Muramoyltetrapeptide carboxypeptidase LdcA involved in peptidoglycan recycling
Amino acid sequence: MRTMTYPDKPKPGDRVAVLSPAAGLPGLFPVPHDLGLRRLTGDFGLVPVEYPTTRRLGSSPADRAADLHAAFADPDITAVITSIGGDDQITVLSHVDDELLRANPKPFFGYSDNVNLLTRLWELGIVAYHGGSIMTQFGRASRIHPLTEESLRAALFTRGTYRLSAPDSYGDEDVPWDSGAMSVEPPMFPSTGWEWHNADRIVEGPSWGGCLEVIAGLLMADKVLPVEEYAGCVLFLETSEEMPSAGDVHRILRGMGERGLLGQFAAVLFGRPKAWSIDRRTTPTEKAEYLAAQRESVRRAFAEYAPDAVLVLDVDLGHTDPQLVLPYGGTVRVDGPARTITVEY
């Protein structure tokens, strides 16, 4: 099993890099970004340092990689936090200096398109953190969700175990990113909790995975390791605001299964699907149908390719609210009999 190293954690008062290695959307939507920065400073006591491409739309992959290198190489920077995701971070990977990152390990926080860099850090043996972007978690309308904040604090500042908590309610409907809406609490809906299958044993191992659409892109570009490198890990997956169809989800999982990848994992966490977006404002009935169809496609794929894996659906990770931070490459313990998920931050 791959040996993973936890980088040193920041402490209040430290300088942390705020980067946009996926997309410079803070330049287009400064309101949630600036709100997130104020909370990073006022609530978490950290000093954000922005780089040339943080607010610049259309930055080249080489320029975004240069900012990443500058942040990791600076001894005064103790963590790297992404502003938001994007679409083309896979093009940045060919510009990444692996030896520079390996020689200067730091906690890296991001999700969605940032899974491209999370997988690269995983391959270098550096534990990173899936979640906690400035515009979406720190810059959430009204306030940071309490469960998100608790998870973020633990991941940022502490070591040791942390038990993830299933919330009583969740949200997947966004408010507009303008100053008039940012004081409004996003709508929340009753949560049915996590759905467990094959929950008759305990599985523990380093995590790997992320946004399903990004993983699919990495697989198509052959930017993953041989399947046996993932043996003994805990897989986690989730889908984005693009809301892929149940058929697309099954096809991606089927491809992973045919590759022999799904069979490497003894436990799988699948995130609660986002079933509404600004561009696709589904009705309650449409949301319920979408959620049911995606869950069924996931259950079917793992029944076909990893029938003995412990499978947990609707875990609050990725593109959902609250968002629980997972240590990417860190230890995850899935306790089926106790119905608990514990992570090592």
